[in-house]
Prior knowledge:
Bound molecules: acetamide
Strand order of the largest sheet: 7-8-15-16-17-18-19-20
CATH topology of the largest domain: TIM Barrel
Radius of gyration: 29 Å
Number of strands: 38
Number of helices: 19
Distance between the termini: 74 Å
Amino acid sequence: MSARFLILCSLILTLLSCREPEIKLSSPSVIPAxxxxxVLPGRFTIDQSTVIRNAxxxxxxxxxxxxxxEVETNRSWETKYATENVILFxxxxxxxxxxxxxxxxxxxxxxxxxxxxxxxxxAVQTLIQLLPLELEKSKENHxxxxxxxxxxxxxxxxYRGMHLDVSRHLFDVEFIKKYIDAMALxxxxxxxxxxxxxxxxxxxxxxxxxxxxxxxxxxSTLMGHYNDSPRLxxxxxxGGFYTQEEIREVIAFAKARHxxxxxxxxxxxxAQAAIAAYPELGCTPEKVNxxxxxxxxxxxxxxxxxxxxxxxxxxxxxxxxxxxPYIHIGxxxxxxxxxxxxxxxxxxxxxxxxKDEYELQSYFIQRIEKYLNSKGRNIIGWxxxxxxxxxxxxxxxxxRGTTGAVEAAKSGHDVIMTPTSHSYFDYYQSENENEPTAIxxxxxxxxxxxxxxxxxxxxxxxxxxxxxxxxxxxxxYMTTSDQVEYMAFPRMLAMSEVAWTQAENKNYxxxxxxxxxxxxxxxxxxxxxxxxxxxxxxxxxDQQQYKLSTASLGKEIRFTTDGSKPTATSAIYKQAIPFTKxxxxxxxxxxxxxxxxxxxxxxxxxxxxxxATITINKEPNKSYPGSGAQGLINGIKGSxxxxxxxxxxxxxxxxIEIEITFKEPILVDEIKLRxxxxxxQWVYAPEKYYIFLETKNGMISDLVGxxxxxxxxxxxxxxxxxxxxxxxxxxxxxxxxxxxxxxxPEGKQGAGNKAWTFIDEIIIN
Length: 765
Ligand code: ACM
């Protein structure tokens, strides 16, 4: 565009509305959904002469909007008195919710009202999302329209958190700011910064230089998956830390976005990096290095005066930096093995009249709490801090399910909800075999979205103790910031709506539509989000029909059943596919003849067990229900590499009995059982099982040993042909008694805990 044309344009811009490309008005698509949003007739148009008016003291929020608009519209914005063509901020004392706001737009103005700067800030975030995406996609001087709306909004929860582990992998300040920016856009207000762990200490502590020299670096890093056998290491030095100056910069950046940063300094476990630097803090004479692989380590701080002095000095510097009213002190996964054999730890137990090592952990946490309370701060700890007695003023972060949350809330403690089942964004988000390697588990977008942070065991009064939810990103398997984004988005969008939007105003279909729209925003923001909206999902219904579905609207599914790739001319899926023979289904989501996502593939094996009746004496664990008992004989095998899919059934510590009854007696040659085996994740195939075959003439029983190896799959092929004279005997029913592996032995991950049994697909030929 020539300069002369530009000048001409700006002269006549207010008279005519032609010169710049005009953008169509889209219907509002805001995440998290406001509590009430009404679209009214008309629109407000931002042009070259639109100004901002700060009628009251919302300087922070006004400046935030101003800088946003200046960058995006490529012009300077004036803050001045105006009654027309104005974005107006107004103080409204009738808005009583601390972070609440209203927006009213019409042809003359955009009126943002709040009673706090935080409220005004969230009004700004909503306004940004009301602006056309083209603004963020290109910096051209568009004419911008905002739909006329009336919005009334306030958050459901006061705590809306996202966590990031920077110990397992470290991310630079620029990325931390990008993460915080995205949180602000989604109205999250707390960043939980996991700064120390076994694999690296990431915060500069001036008094202890070896934390920077030694604890911040590891000699090597595990490559591939923890369950791989043999394990491979890259033998490269890895590490670094944030200087106090960088931390101050990040805190100021977050503060300007109404985000509080809670630092986490882990104790008494997950302390191997610190102990590698200062061995005198440990409980054994053995020298340790900064950990090079993942998991839980026995290295633990010794509960002596030297350790408490060290921790208090560290926390002094932490408090000097972080204004947060909360300091997170970890408390999770602290094996007591070393304390059991340490004379120092045993002496502390004796001197303080403690019952055992659990009470010693409680003593440890309570001492730290007392120190932090004396400085005007409160502690947060993972739910293990309940063991041996909860520190009087502690807030509990409930991660191992919700039992800890219920106990803490009932005893009058505040609780933050981060159960693995709904909040662990390091879990797989798709069952597609091509997903980047993740720690395990399975947590789909829809499940995050449907999370209700209030456990049903709580009364309305007790429920007030649940201050909010949080999404967690542990980064063992996220080596780059791109991977962090892939795991965080779009699940962070779902969590923002869990945290902000009242349950009655949530709707998954509406959310999915808004996520699809938000894709463009994330592209404009250069966020490497995962897109599973265009994936096909399949499941077998009770009528032995295979159903296909996809999350987003306005597309079609095309499929084949012969293993060939679906194309624009393949059959359109309209009704469930009957499962009466082996099927090799390939399906894809198409729009206007174009395949949008990845091809979904599913083999269905029509074996003799399909359609039989099955019962199990125990319910699978709530986190690993698979497809229920019937899923064990539905012709679909669980993944060979992931136990968190919709086929594997997980049982924690239970011995299980499975009974299969056929519609009519059948001849059987072979029975195959499949067990998952991932000892690093506490999953152990059983060592044996009992089988009972019921025929017209009575019962045959047998004890079957299982192969022992490190494979993730342990298979048992039970061949009946070896029984002479059995070939012609028809079987009415089958029973399996499968004893759990038992307690995990010393020296293994999860030692002392019950092992998990995972089973899927009993194939009967
Ligand atoms: C945790 O995931 N260890 C809190």
